[in-house]
Amino acid sequence: MEDGDYTLHVTFNDDVMGENIKFLTLCVMALGRTELVDTITRAMQCMRGLQMPAPQAGWSLQHLSRETNGRPAGAAAGARSYEPRSLATHTTQTNVQQLFHYFTLTGDRGYLARIPEAIAWLKTVPLPADAGQRNALLSGRTHPTFVELDTNEPLYVHRYGSNIHNGAYWADKDLANTLSHYSAGRSIDTTALQKRYDELSAMSDAAVAAMVAKSPLKASTPTALPKYFGIREVDFPDLFAGARMVTPVVPQAEVDALVAELGTKNHWTAPVPEVVNPYRGNGPAAPYTGTAYRSKHVGDIYDTSPYPADNPPAVDPYVKRDKPQFIVTSDFIRRMGRLIAFVAPVTAA
After folding, report:
1. Which of 86, 68, 91 has the alpha carbon at shortest distance from 7?
2. What is the DSSP string of 43-99?
């Protein structure tokens, strides 16, 4: 790889850094591990410090953690073969939202300082107005996933072949025939980002001090975590002193339906989102010049990538069928969360 082993990069993809910072914050709260505050602070400063310079003041999925092949530490880096070296609009939005959190945790206005640059950059790279008509996979999306360094032009990822042995990914400027398993477009809300920035930057010093006094990073002794983690994602606002993680209101009719569907069983079933082909060994290396797999989740029958049973490639031996019913962990947790919220609600103080 031109950027070296991507597992050594600083990773923002899937909010890896943000989620680790949150986890360490939970450790400070629940275990009284106050020595972790320095680690948390350095990680937050790392995120802030890796923002690229204007006019492309965003972030990449990954950044080099050290000089690599003549490129300096901190430079944007590529990773998997369908993640080209570029800036990522969704990662930039997520990191801006995290910097909002880090300001509320610390009161350090430096976390807000360059957010206007990031918002300004995002406004320069929307998808074409007709993107959804030209590519259904981009319908409802506002921005390309990847933006080329220097040119500020969208990059769209494609693939050829039928499996890893005769195919590969590549990126260009053509928004047609993009991947289905990795979206070429994202939904970015620059208006909401600007609104939150305006709210936080307008806070008085006194209001900031009062906010930070309740920060979970100020906890000197173990404090209780939010009561329920499975009902919705726990986020930083839930961790401040005095915060209450309010449960949703669940109507009686929904509860009745959940109980009726459970019946005499001790579980619910749901359609499995994706299935996989059984392992058959290496696929053929002979070139495949067809297009059946280019915008599907899976390749030929030698490809064990997960794919939806009701949307397979339109080629033998694939057959479109209903998604099979299984105990789906995420759906089971969702239903249990709704019942818990009904029988043990947590309401606003």
Report:
1. 68
2. HHHHHHHTPPPTTS----SEE-SS-BTTBPTT-EE--STTS-SSEEHHHHHHHHHHH
| Angle between helix 115-123 and helix 190-201 axes, rounded to 10 deg | 160
Q: List, in order of start, the domains of the chain with CATH numbers.
A: 6-145+183-200 (1.50.10.20)
Q: What is the pLDDT of residues 168-227, one digit of tens each?
A: 999 999 999 999 999 999 999 999 999 999 999 999 999 999 999 999 999 888 999 988
HSE on the CB side for 22, CA within 13 Å?
Answer: 16
For the stretch 244-301, pLDDT in tens is: 999 999 999 999 999 999 999 999 999 999 999 999 999 999 999 999 999 999 999 9
Burial of 313 (0-12, 13-18, 19+ CB in 10 A): buried
pLDDT at res. 86: 98
Q: Which residues of 231-251 are buried (b: 16+ CB within 10 A; e: fewer)?
A: bbebebebbbeeeebbbeebe
Cα–Cα distances in Å, from 179 out to 33, 69, 169, 279? 43, 29, 9, 23
The pTM (predicted TM-score) of the whole model is: 0.95
Dihedral pair phi/psi, residue 326, rounded to 5°: -145, 175
CA–CA distance, 225 with 210 (Å, rounded to integer): 21
Does residue 42 sit in helix, strand or coil?
helix
In tens, the pLDDT along 124-152 reads 999 999 999 999 999 999 999 999 999 99
Cα separations (Å) of 225 from 148, 218, 221, 228?
Answer: 42, 15, 13, 9
Query: What is the distance between the alpha carbons of residues 251 and 255, in angstroms, rounded to a whole number?
Result: 7
